[in-house]
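Now read the record:
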Amino acid sequence: MSPSDTVRGKSISSVEVTNVSKQGFWVLVGERELFASFEDFPPFREAPVGHILNVEHPSAHHLHWPDLDVDLSIDSLENPAAFPLMSRAPLEKPRRSPARKARRKRS
């Protein structure tokens, strides 16, 4: 079979979680190994190891953990300080339940 006869299919990018420790995990993306600390990436802290190991590389700058429904850019792994995981949504006041309101009226 000559190179021109090669059947082209879906491009597969190399990605693999190489180690998991108490502090975080290492992801090998191509030839780069990146560290994701649980402090910087809390959704992984309580995740089962098997879920952390199940990582996909759907595009050049994007990683996806389907079992955890987590998506990260490779840039965020390289420089987590530039991508703080804080919501900018305004805090809502807690709502009182109807039962609690009824108890307050009776008092």
